[in-house]
Amino acid sequence: MSYSRSPSPHPTGVGGWSSPGFTHGSGTSTPHSGLLSPTTLGPSGISWAAAKAKSDEVRGYPSFATKNNGFFSRSRRQLSATLPRFRLGSGSPNGYVDKDEFRRGHAFASTDGGRAWGFSRTVFRPRRSRLLLVLVVMLLGYTFLWTRIIEAYRRSPLGGGRKFVIILESNIEGGVMEWKGAREWAIERNSIWNKDHYAKRWGYELEVVNMLAKKRYSHEWRENWEKVDIIRETMRKYPDAEWFWWLDLNTWIMEYSYSLQDHVLNRLGEIAYRDINVYNPLGIHHPLTDPYLDQISLSPTGDNDTSSINFLLSQDCGGFNLGSFFIRRSLWADRLLDAWWDPVMYEQKHMEWEHKEQDALEYLYTTQPWIRSGVAFLPQRHINSFPPGACGDGDDPKIHYQEDEGDFLVNMAGCNFGRDCWGEMYRYREYSKWLNRTSWERLKERLNGLRDKLFPRVEETE
Amino acid sequence: MQFALPPRRVPITPVYGRSSRFSLQRRKQLKAIAILAVALLTIFFLLSQFFYTSTGTPAVSASISGVVIVTVLDRVRFTDEYIEKIVKNREDYAKRHGYTNFFANVTDYESSIGDSPQSWAIIPAVRHAMTSHPYSQYFFHLDAHALIMNPSKSLGSHVLDKQRLESLMLREVSVVPPDSIIKTFSHVHPEDVDLIITTDNEDMNPGSFILRQGDFAKFFLDLWFDPLYRSYNFAKAETHVLDHIVQWHPTILARLALLPQQTINAYSKDCSAAAANGIYKDGDFVIRFLGCDTDTKRNCEKEMEPYYRLWQTKLKAE
After folding, report:
1. In this model, does residue B15 exceed pLDDT 50?
2. Keywords of this protein's UniProt record, alphabetized (chain A) (predicted)?
3. Distance (Å, rounded) from C-alpha B317 to C-alpha B147?
4. Which CATH superfamily is A163-440 part of?
5. Taking 90 as the threshold, does the pLDDT of residue A135 lie above it?
6. pTM of the model
7. How far apart are CA B209 and CA B196, in angstroms?
8. Minimal Cα–Cα distance from B30 to chain A, Å?
9. Which residues, numbered 153 to 192 in chain B, qualify as contacts with chain A under a Cβ-Cβ cut-off of 8 Å?
């Protein structure tokens, strides 16, 4: 044993230990120090009783908190708790001890120990320690900072995230019509958190807009119409942004891993349809046939160029749905927002237009050819899945959220009318949380599942 | 065990020596890497800037040029003789300046107009002209009851030329007389103008206007022609709707140039609606007989006759 000059911890040495994950066998060897383990077992390791206690802890009994507070037991607990594999052989407490002894035996074998020492010598030699430091820093940086770096990049002008703004309505009516209760607050808080989480991840801007009932709109009975003004204001506020994604408050983004670019806007050619006859619940006459119109206006699919799409929405069973839609900054959009608000049309139709601005858009789409050439539709479930209960109780796979197909967003449309908004949102929130669990959680889950399959809970039945 | 730490001096010197040699090489490498990285970043940045498409530019291609004169004729109510005079007048003018004529009939658009007044036909007619002449840039709609009295003036030099337009455009003027609170913008540049029009004493008058081909034109015409406007029973049909949309929709106002009436829309002395200086004087570009077809006391054919003769003698004199 002539390596005492090394500053490195030696598994069997007196000097200390490295963290259990790094060197082979270190977890088992630390008790040799005799200082850190409060057990009185001495250097030889674990007795049957201690092993059984630990085995019990692994199964989740909280008794460990009072006894075996030492390092050994703590690290043992971590190791075993995070690695279910460890317990594969532990159908009985004997298995546990056997395995442990088996491994310890290996650690003490001369070849194995020698190799471990050789490795640590290269790593821990004074000059190499810098390398180790760099490696450790890189590892830490990767685990803790990498996502932040990626997010910062996406937010930067290079990343392109700033070209997208999510507009989320909130504070509907401002609680003027009825007091906002705990559920309303919860819906608002959760919905905003959901969009914020998504926007942060992809570097998008989130604009939470206040739908407070304003006299300006109320005196004309124009609630909901402020959408138009709000989009215009938001466009002014974010001069760099290109696409604006409107979301109603009662929506939940289920899949955080879908970027707007990859999921929607970069593949409009494949997913968007411009010929409304593909799905036409309103029975809008399309294409137009007036002989004085130009080729593009007469064509069922416009100019077939995705770059001319300025408005993207989906249709539900009742026609256009503006719970989740995209509008692109363009002259076309300016004109649409301008025409949308026209008072003469409104004056004549506001009694008929039950869905307010949504009906107005349907009307404009029907009567004004220039609008058709800028509008494209997405299959509903691509950006706007409905929960069961919206659009009929059925489970239409075109309309309703399908649990195993990775739908992007759920819009709890119409939940104010006889359904439970908060209940639905809670359910989808939890489901989305489960869908977006980390790979580590997935692994644990799978291993646990495997264990349960291999060793059905016999302990409980005993 | 005794020499837990090595004697300091001996190993340190070679370490320094080695490290300096090492860092010299290393520095070169680092420099190269840094230069490469900066270059890559620059290229990437430039490319991303280059491929970033601005969304604010109008989509008017440069290959479009030429002028089309749009006239909507009512062959049912008026004699062929009268119609022929109008057509002759337009054809002569088009031939002089290399323009194209587009004659439409009110009856062509009956199915689109429905129950609304026939005067609405001018809107689909202009849209139709644009469809038929997709490579022409300007569309000059002139009412049928009008004559081009000074055919030597080309539209280009008389109105469309940038400097000329800049000098003619009325800024900060009420768009609907006499005192609409909506006024023309002060900062509109001639190159942004898509619609050139005039007001008379009462309204913005669609009997004579110039519209540039492009997305704006489609938007403007489609909006103007919306069925809800047609069914609203505006007293002056399309004229009042024009007043309405220009005042309520800034996207239209921002592309509009308002000219003094006599430049493209002088009225004959029988018309009551002319603005100050709006009455036809010798040398003016066009004369219109506004209202001759709606006022039962007037007769378009009789009113036009003296001016038609005047135009003919002018032609002979040249």
Report:
1. no
2. Glycosyltransferase, Membrane, Transferase, Transmembrane, Transmembrane helix
3. 18
4. Spore Coat Polysaccharide Biosynthesis Protein SpsA; Chain A (3.90.550.10)
5. yes
6. 0.73
7. 6
8. 17
9. none
| Residues B292/B82, Cβ–Cβ less than 8 Å | no
Q: How confident is the model at residue A402 (pLDDT cuts 50, 70, 90)?
A: confident
Contact of B235 with chain A, judged by CB distance below 8 Å, is answered with no
The Cα A219–Cα A214 span in angstroms is: 8
For A456, which DSSP code? -
Contact B223 A368 (CB under 8 A): yes
CB contact under 8 A, B1 and A294: no
B232 contacts on A by Cβ (under 8 Å) = 344, 348
Say if residue B28's pLDDT is above 50: yes
Q: Is B223 left (phi over 0), alpha (psi -120 to 50) or beta?
A: alpha
Name the amino acid, one letter, at B106.
Answer: V
Residue A117's pLDDT band, with cuts at 50, 70 and 90, is low
The answer to whether residue A348 neighbours chain B at the CB level (below 8 Å) is yes
Question: Measured between CB atoms, does B215 come within 8 Å of chain A?
Answer: yes
Most confident of A46-50, A56-60, A449-453: A449-453
Mean pLDDT of B265-286: 88
Task: Show me where the domains of chain A are located.
Answer: 26-126, 130-159, 163-440
Q: How many residues does chain A have?
A: 462
Q: With a cut of 0.90, is the ipTM above it?
A: no
Q: Where are the domains of chain B?
A: 67-317
CA dihedral B164, B166, B169, B172 (to 10 degrees): -160
| pLDDT computed for residue B208 by the predictor | 94
Exposure class string for A116-146: b at 16+ Cβ within 10 A, else e = bbeebeebbeeeeeeebeeeeeeeeeeeeee
Q: What's the one-letter identity of residue A65?
A: A
Rounded to the nearest angstrom, the minimum Cα separation between B161 and chain A is 25
Closest CA to A94 of A137, A55, A41: A55
Q: Do A335 and B219 touch (CB under 8 A)?
A: yes
Q: Among candidates A8, A116, A100, which has minimal Cα distance to A45?
A: A100
Other Cβ atoms closer than 10 A to B87:
16
Nearest to B120 by CA among B134, B110, B129: B110
Which two three-digit tokens encode residue A294? 């130009």
Fold designation for B67-317 = Spore Coat Polysaccharide Biosynthesis Protein SpsA; Chain A (3.90.550)
Residue pair B190/B256 in contact (Cβ under 8 Å)? The answer is no
Chain A contact present for B62, CB below 8 A: no
Instruction: Please state which of the ranges A48-52, A321-325, A398-402 shows the lowest mean pLDDT.
Output: A48-52
Is B231 within 8 Å of A294 when comparing Cβ atoms?
A: no
Confidence check: pLDDT of B45 > 70 = yes
Q: What pLDDT digit, counting tens, does each position of A302-322 carry?
A: 888 889 999 999 999 889 999
Run of H or E residues at A78: helix A71-82
The residues facing A317 across adjacent strands are: none
Q: How high is the pLDDT of residue A24?
A: 44
Closest-CA residue to B91 (of B68, B121, B74, B108): B68
> What is the per-residue pLDDT across B206-263, written as a single tens digit (0 to 9) for each?
999 999 999 999 999 999 999 999 988 888 889 999 999 999 999 999 999 999 999 9
